[in-house]
């Protein structure tokens, strides 16, 4: 295709308009996810901080593209590519948050803002690829002052890609610092002492409305409740929606998920969604001395194991 300088300029300008609008809309989609998806802040703070950087980069590049700044054309293509890869790559981190990859993928693709974010990042990539001829032409020609109108090389692309990756990676690393969960979720009753190895409670010390928290299997939080009729109930504290750790509210005797607002009763049944599956229960055994042990898991949600 034979190009002239005015053709290349006008063609690149049209594509930068598409890129600018796409970046600004992806800024909106990312901000919406940050404002509405509680699991980002309660479960995956590193993802939330990474998304904040992506949103900031998209906002700046969106404005600069709309202003027709040609020097951001290649960085825009790099940012769109990196943003798309990182958002899709989030799926494989599911085991880190106690979820299976297929379930986490179905959850993410069920979020319209996530789908829109991916589509818009892809639109930036497509626009950048379609503008290759325009960009290469303008990278060859020089202005009257002898300066090239545009820099368009693989090296420049990689430099922009790495620079954005470092910015986002720094936020992710900062967000990976472990913050202790709320005291209510990790503290067992102070009266539960001198237990034999493997025991989670002593029935003689259990009280109605005073839960005991324990891990079973190791690393998976659960709650043990003594009911008013003297029976015992043990439930997983990982919400069956997106595996956020729940909180027991003794005043109302319900289990609440801080991520998306799901509520379960003291037997694990769903009182309010978006969760649809009851909390898995823990099989218990009580020995002749009244010590309680966990021996198995009943029911399965999306959470591992």
Descriptive account of the structure:
The longest helix has 32 residues, at 5-36. Strands 5-6-7-8 form a four-stranded antiparallel sheet, with no helix packed on it. Strands 1-10-9 form a three-stranded antiparallel sheet, with no helix packed on it. Strands 2-3-4 form a three-stranded antiparallel sheet, with no helix packed on it. It has two domains: 5-175, no CATH class; 183-298, Rieske [2Fe-2S] iron-sulphur domain (Rieske Iron-sulfur Protein, 3-layer Sandwich). The chain has nine helices and ten strands. The N and C termini lie far apart (58 Å). Strand 7 (263-265) and strand 8 form a beta hairpin. The chain is α+β, with helices and mostly antiparallel strands and 305 residues long. The model is unreliable at 179-191 (pLDDT under 50). Helices cover 46% and strands 14% of the residues. The protein has helices at 5-36, 38-42, 45-66, 73-89, 101-109, 112-130, 132-140, 154-175, 183-186, and strands at 201-202, 212-215, 221-226, 232-236, 247-249, 254-256, 263-265, 270-272, 281-286, 291-298.
Helical content, roughly?
Answer: 40-55%
Count of extended strands: 10
Query: Strands across the major sheet, in which order?
Result: 5-6-7-8
Which consecutive residue ranges, at least 5 long each, have pLDDT under 50?
179-191
Give the terminus-to-terminus CA distance.
58 Å
Largest sheet: 4 strands, antiparallel
Number of helices: 9
Q: C-alpha Rg, in Å?
A: 26 Å
Total number of domains? 2
Mean pLDDT: 87
In percent, how much strand structure appears in the residues?
5-15%
Helix and strand succession?
HHHHHHHHHEEEEEEEEEE
Q: What's the shape?
A: elongated
Q: Determine the structural class based on helices, strands and strand pairing.
A: alpha+beta
């Amino acid at each position: 295709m034979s190009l002239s300088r005015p053709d290349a300029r006008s063609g690149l300008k049209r594509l930068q308009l598409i890129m600018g609008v796409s970046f600004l809309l992806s800024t909106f989609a990312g901000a919406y996810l940050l404002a509405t998806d509680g699991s980002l802040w309660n479960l995956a703070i590193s993802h939330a901080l990474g998304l904040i950087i992506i949103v900031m980069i998209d906002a700046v590049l969106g404005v600069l593209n709309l202003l027709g700044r040609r020097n951001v054309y290649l960085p825009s293509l790099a940012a769109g590519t990196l943003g798309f890869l990182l958002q899709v790559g989030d799926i494989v981190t599911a085991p880190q948050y106690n979820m299976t990859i297929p379930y986490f993928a179905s959850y993410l693709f069920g979020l319209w803002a996530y789908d829109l974010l991916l589509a818009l990042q892809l639109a930036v990539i497509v626009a950048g690829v379609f503008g290759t001829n325009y960009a290469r032409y303008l990278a060859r020609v020089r202005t009257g002052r002898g300066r090239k109108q545009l820099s368009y090389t693989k090296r420049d692309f990689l430099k922009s890609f790495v620079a954005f990756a470092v910015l986002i990676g720094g936020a992710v690393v900062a967000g990976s610092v472990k913050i202790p969960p709320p005291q209510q979720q990790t503290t067992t009753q102070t009266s539960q002492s001198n237990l034999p190895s493997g025991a989670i409670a002593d029935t003689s010390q259990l009280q109605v409305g005073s839960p005991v928290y324990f891990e079973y299997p190791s690393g998976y939080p659960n709650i043990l409740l003594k009911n008013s009729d003297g029976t015992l109930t043990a439930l997983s504290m990982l919400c069956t929606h997106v595996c956020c750790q729940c909180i027991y509210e003794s005043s109302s005797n319900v289990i609440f998920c801080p991520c998306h607002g799901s509520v379960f009763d003291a037997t694990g049944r769903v009182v309010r969604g978006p969760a649809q599956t009851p909390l898995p229960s823990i099989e218990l055994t009580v020995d002749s001395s009244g010590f309680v042990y966990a021996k198995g898991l009943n029911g399965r949600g999306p959470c591992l194991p």
